[in-house]
Specification:
Blueprint (H helix, E strand, L loop, with lengths): L1 H24 L5 H6 L6 H12 L2 H14 L1 H32 L5 H8 L4 H34 L3 H49 L3 H9 L9 E4 L4 E4 L2 H8 L9 H9 L6 H31 L12 H10 L3 H41 L6 H22 L7 H15 L1 H9 L5 H22 L11 H18 L5 H11 L2
Length: about 500
């Protein structure tokens, strides 16, 4: 009975988001409407949409899973880095990218890069390719999370569950575009918040109370420490070094290069309302990630007390908690349905934004910008929607492996965007001497370094075993500065336009 109630709750939720997509489909008259909603996003929707699109399935599955296996340190330092990055991104980037994107009449990140550096199509092309390269696996991680959710809960095949979930996301995203994605993001952030709170309260209660949760965690060496980490394989603690802390904090650098977050900044209606958006976003991020880490610790206590089994796949912990909750009656089954809808929401809120960013790169920057195809407004909408579908199919293919780790996939894609776009975005907004040669070299160097460090250097371990985002971000920044200074300065017209927008 409980499974039926949960299924009904989730189906109702899915129907709501599809209905939103249908409603907003009527408002998409141009590609500007489809990708940026006509730059009419309010401050609260901007804040919650930006953060919901950021806090993907890793918030409700990946982060608690890490805390469950290794304790506080790894998950907490990741959360701290992301919280700091969130605040700084809103503080120094949001207003500038909103002004400059409008001043250059750009409504995609590659389009902004191209126009900022004098109409450089090469830069736009490389940026668009990078978005596709890193967003496809990022989107795949979201589809994989949906597959894990439904397969572990209802016993259906992973592949079927993943495909159906992806189809719903594609449906409302292709219909409603940016406004539908942003509106559903707001709803999804609320659902995620409810899910997190309910899971924590219920989990502490059934685990025997707060003291029992802490006592169970204390039995594992290093589990609750910020400077120690627990190894389930050996049952021992190891030091969490200063270098490792810096490496983990580097997650925060990724914010400067996230196209789906930057698009929210570009779409806000009034820059004067950014302060309110920044406060709302920062507070929500701190609270949500703190709770997510806590769920991992609570989940271990529930396993220790025999409430839930010891988990081979720690990323399903919140699913297991919701299942236990559903056995306590109809009302609790409905609440469990809301929790699981929250997991679905966290996935959808990111996947829809990523699909829009990737499709805009294909349709606007590759087809029209690079190939110089002169498309009408109506054709642009069709191409945009077709791009969403094609990219989704590729992502579904990559997500077909049920053993893929949501956290690991997100970690790699996050590093990719942070290193390729982050430094270029910061220098484009704040350094007028930077030029197209520096931007191109920095973007390429950052992208290459991600792969080199991830697959060749990091496996060596020791001091080299740090998160690939940090060294790649540094290398990209060095390339931008050095190459810009070694090549001719930007033309006077480019500098004058940059200064005129800044002083607007």
């Amino acid at each position: 009975m409980s499974d039926i109630i949960i299924m009904v709750s989730i189906v109702v939720y899915l129907l709501v988001v599809v209905a939103i997509g249908i409603q907003y489909s009527k408002k998409n008259k141009s590609s500007d409407d489809f990708y940026l909603g006509g730059r009419k996003l309010g401050p609260f929707v901007t804040a919650m949409s930006a953060e919901a699109s950021d806090m993907s399935s890793w918030l409700l599955m990946g982060l608690p899973g890490v805390a469950y296996l290794t304790g506080v340190a790894d998950a907490a330092w990741t959360a701290i880095g992301l919280a700091i990055g969130t605040y700084i991104n809103w503080l120094i980037v949001a207003k500038r990218i909103r002004m400059y994107s409008q001043g250059y009449d750009a409504f995609t990140v590659p389009d902004f890069f191209s126009k900022r550096f004098g109409g450089c199509k090469t830069l736009s092309c490389i940026a668009a390719i990078m978005i596709v390269v890193f967003f496809v696996p990022y989107t795949a991680s979201g589809f994989a999370a949906c597959g894990k959710l439904f397969s572990s809960l209802f016993g259906v095949s992973y592949l079927s569950a993943m495909v159906i979930s992806a189809a719903v996301i594609v449906c409302y995203c292709t219909l409603g575009g940016f406004l539908a994605a942003s509106t559903t993001d707001l709803i999804q952030s609320i659902v995620m918040s409810v899910a997190l709170i309910v899971v924590v309260v219920f989990g502490i209660n059934v685990a025997g109370g707060f003291d029992a949760v802490v006592d169970n965690a204390k039995q594992l060496p290093g589990y609750l420490g910020l400077f120690k980490t627990y190894s389930a394989e050996t049952g021992t603690a190891s030091n969490y070094s200063f270098l490792k802390i810096c490496s983990t904090l580097a997650w925060g650098l990724g914010y400067f290069g996230m196209p789906h977050i930057l698009l929210r900044f570009m779409a806000i209606e009034d820059t004067k309302k950014l302060k309110l958006s920044r406060r709302v976003a920062s507070v929500w991020v701190v609270i949500s990630m703190s709770v997510a880490v806590s769920i991992g610790i609570i989940g271990y206590a529930m396993s220790a007390e025999g409430v839930i089994p010891n988990l081979k796949d720690s990323e399903t912990i919140i699913v297991q908690i919701a299942h236990v909750l559903s056995t306590h009656g109809i009302i609790f089954a409905i609440i469990a349905g809301v929790i699981l809808a929250g997991i679905l929401a966290s996935t959808m809120s990111t996947s829809d934004s990523q699909l829009l960013a990737a499709s805009s790169s294909v349709s606007e920057n590759l087809l029209e910008g690079v190939l110089s195809l002169n498309l009408s407004a109506g054709v642009k909408i069709v191409v945009a929607r077709g791009s969403v579908i094609i990219i989704s199919i590729i992502a579904m293919f990559l997500a077909s492996n049920p053993n893929s780790s949501v956290f690991q996939i997100v970690s790699f894609a996050w590093a990719g965007f942070g290193a390729t776009f982050g430094p270029v975005m910061l220098f484009a907004l704040f350094w007028k001497r930077s030029n197209k040669y520096g931007a191109i070299s920095g973007m390429v160097a950052g992208g290459i370094m991600i792969f080199v460090w991830k697959f060749l250097v990091r496996p060596m371990g020791g001091v080299l075993g740090i998160y690939e985002l940090l060294p790649a971000f540094i290398v990209a920044s060095i390339f931008i500065v050095v190459v810009s200074l070694l090549t001719p300065a930007p033309e006077k017209e480019i500098v004058d336009e940059f200064e005129s927008i800044k002083n607007y």
